[in-house]
Amino acid sequence: MNKQQLFENIKRKKSFLCVGLDTDIKKIPEHLLKEEDPIFAFNKAIIDATADLCIAYKPNLAFYESLGVKGWIAFEKTVSYIKKNYSDQFIIADAKRGDIGNTSEMYARSFFDELDLDSVTVAPYMGEDSVKPFLIYPEKWVILLALTSNKGSHDFQLTEDANGERLFEKVLKTSQNWASDEQMMYVVGATQGKMFQDIRKHVPNHFLLVPGVGAQGGSLEEVCKYGMNKMCGLIVNSSRAIIYADKTENFAIAAKAAAKAVQVEMEEQLKAIL
Amino acid sequence: MNKQQLFENIKRKKSFLCVGLDTDIKKIPEHLLKEEDPIFAFNKAIIDATADLCIAYKPNLAFYESLGVKGWIAFEKTVSYIKKNYSDQFIIADAKRGDIGNTSEMYARSFFDELDLDSVTVAPYMGEDSVKPFLIYPEKWVILLALTSNKGSHDFQLTEDANGERLFEKVLKTSQNWASDEQMMYVVGATQGKMFQDIRKHVPNHFLLVPGVGAQGGSLEEVCKYGMNKMCGLIVNSSRAIIYADKTENFAIAAKAAAKAVQVEMEEQLKAIL
Prior knowledge:
Two copies of one chain form a homodimer. By secondary structure, chain A is an alpha/beta fold. Helix content of chain A is 43%, strand content 15%. Chain A has helices spanning 3-13, 38-50, 61-65, 69-85, 101-114, 128-131, 153-156, 167-175, 195-202, 220-227, 240-243, 251-270; strands spanning 17-21, 56-59, 90-97, 119-122, 141-147, 184-188, 208-210, 234-238. Chain A has an eight-stranded parallel beta barrel with strand order 1-2-3-4-5-6-7-8, surrounded by six helices. In chain A, helix 2 packs parallel to helix 4 (69-85) and helix 2 (38-50) packs parallel to helix 12 (251-270). The radius of gyration of chain A is 18 Å and the shape is globular. The model of chain A has no long low-confidence stretch (mean pLDDT 95). Chains A and B meet through helix 3, helix 4, helix 5, helix 6 and helix 7 of A and helix 3, helix 4, strand 3, helix 5 and helix 6 of B.
């Protein structure tokens, strides 16, 4: 999917919501455990309930890997299901990979060639050759970690160099030599509200993937105020607050309601640019 | 496995070699492709041929993930095979994970609880809470990326802060608040030979996992000169130079010979401390 198509979807759906599929066998409603593939059954119900209200899904690889082979099967089935039934959805493999060139090539092959996903999250620590192998696939995206939503983001990401440039700023600047805003996005946590001003100085036109709204406490209003650009430029993720909105047999209806509440807020915010 | 046990294995085998199982379906000998599980068949032959000469195996997750479910099955079978037949081997999941706390918990559950591996490589970019969930498992290890072997390592890892401290040094220093040398190791690339002096100033007693000898061109002698400590403190990995030493039906014999050549060099180097 290219940038313009993504923006068209945002305008049509009046939403820039990404639903994070952090599906944990220990947290899904009990009645699903009798299904042959409980994880997929849960995801399918969540997807059917929310697809009208979001423009992206973000399966978090850790949750599938933790189940070994079974989890990997559930992940592949989930991706196929989205692609077959909701082909306008942008699919993000939240994998936070990053390795030497020949290894990154294998990851790229896995996510883009085998699974035909739209994007993958990548960690910048190992530099250019850990990122470039992902960029040879047309209309596929690298979403590079810049400023994350967690407490530990302060440990290294805010470290200033001799010129006062913080590490996340160096990541933003350096990585623009590797790819344009047609192939690269950045992860910027919603918990870093006002930092979006600084981020936008470096990357005015890029899309940003924004985790941390919902369970982690970030404010959508603040993110939009400081982070939105004329093509929206934001994909805001919510995982737990939507998919675990209810743990009974009504979980999908509750997820739909939770997604709808966010979409309504987003529609309001989008008025600034549409 | 604890640190003392690891050192005992090194002394007994006169080796600190780790064989990297970067098994690529496109690179293994053609006759194996008729096997039901060619990846596992290859690994099994490599392991049987090299187990006497090494103290660790490092399956690189990317290579298995790129094959989807089949790859994950081959990975799990490989781990089980090592644990059952060569229980003295230290197994490293080369995964380079690192995510917010609740996600890292899932990865830790996957690698330590489900698969019972000894260690996992972790990327430091997201800071403390991305690493800590791996540290609750006794005698399991985090191997944190510090200074990697690739060209891109220069992009961010060498960035100096206002006090002249480079990012990899800050990672070494900060992470020592999270765990001791009984639970933490560091990745330091062999291609950074003389930098081992600087590394050892910060972490004199830690084990270091050293990729980059062999195909990537690092020198074992230089690594030992600047990096060895009184408990050896080095696990030196070689992947391609061993497992792809030959691509005919003799591949396992050639792998054994390649591993033996490295082990002999290591035995020589170990004389300095044994």
